[in-house]
Write a structure and sequence with these properties.
The complex is a heterodimer of chains A (about 120) and B (about 110).
Chain A: E1 5-7, E2 10-13, E3 19-24, E4 31-38, E5 42-50, E6 53-56, E7 65-71, E8 74-79, E9 88-95, E10 112-113, E11 117-121
Parallel strand pairs in A: 2-11
Antiparallel strand pairs in A: 1-3, 3-8, 4-5, 4-9, 5-6, 7-8, 9-10, 9-11
Chain B: E1 4-6, E2 11-14, E3 19-25, E4 32-38, E5 44-50, E6 55-57, E7 60-65, E8 70-75, E9 84-91, E10 99-101, E11 105-110
Parallel strand pairs in B: 2-11
Antiparallel strand pairs in B: 1-3, 3-8, 4-5, 4-9, 6-7, 7-8, 9-10, 9-11
Classes of the chains: A mainly beta (about 120), B mainly beta (about 110).
Chain lengths: ~120, ~110
């Protein structure tokens, strides 16, 4: 089965441009998470969704960042306008409280990460 | 104070060595704990959960000390393929799905 899919894998843009990152979660997973990773700040949760509804966006750094999940198989993270300090690796992850057996898994909050999008803003 | 703190390392050990990492957390009500592994330029992946009674998975042993608010990861008989960054993860009491990651401890296993 395919894991979490992210696109693009690499993005280089100029300051002020709009950037859109895309994510397809694992089929059947009802939680989706967006993270940002930098050397200085480590891995930070930006926002997460449950059944396509944003639950906690307290990690979104400012109004330039927005995220949507129009359906269960697709989410976007948009930065407009982008700034050099937004340069980072952005990960999408998904999870489900039910393991493959359909029962609550002992690792029900295991998150499966996509390969990430490496963003460079010049 | 950070919610989850780790020694960044790197820990540089020879193949076959035993190495241990600790991680401290600030919220005494934290409910769940994990170790994730992240290879260079790759995504994090769950290594193991940490249970109150401690748990072992092959060469890896994880333990929780609630009184002192730390968790540990012990790796026995280190392999070259164990070289990676190990991320300590905590779930805070107000959310079952919001993972708080430590900054990671880097391990280098040399031949």
């Amino acid at each position: 089965d395919a894991g979490v899919i992210q696109s693009p894998r690499h993005e280089v843009t100029e300051m002020g441009q709009e950037v859109t990152l895309r994510c397809k979660p694992i089929s059947g997973h009802d939680y989706l998470f967006w993270y940002r990773q930098t050397m200085m700040r480590g891995l930070e949760l930006l926002i997460y969704f449950n059944n396509n509804v944003p639950i906690d966006d307290s990690g979104m750094p400012e109004d330039r960042f927005s995220a949507k999940m129009p359906n269960a198989s697709f989410s976007t993270l948009k930065i407009q306008p982008s700034e050099p300090r937004d340069s980072a690796v952005y990960f999408c992850a998904s999870s489900s409280p039910h393991g493959t057996s359909g029962r609550i898994s002992s690792s029900y909050n295991e998150q499966f990460f996509g390969p990430g999008t490496r963003l460079t803003v010049l | 104070r950070k919610e989850v703190e780790q020694d960044p390392g790197p820990f540089n050990v020879p193949e076959g060595a035993t190495v241990a990492f600790n991680c401290t957390y600030s919220n005494s009500a934290s409910q769940s704990f994990f170790w994730y592994r992240q290879d260079c330029r790759k995504e994090p992946k769950l290594l193991m959960s940490v249970y109150s009674s401690g748990n072992e998975d092959g060469r890896f042993t994880a333990q929780l000390n609630r009184a002192s608010q730390y968790i540990s990861l012990l790796i026995r008989d280190s392999k070259l393929s164990d070289s990676a960054t190990y991320l300590c993860v905590v779930i805070l009491p107000d959310s079952s799905y919001k993972l708080i990651f430590g900054s990671g401890t880097r391990l280098l296993v040399r031949p």
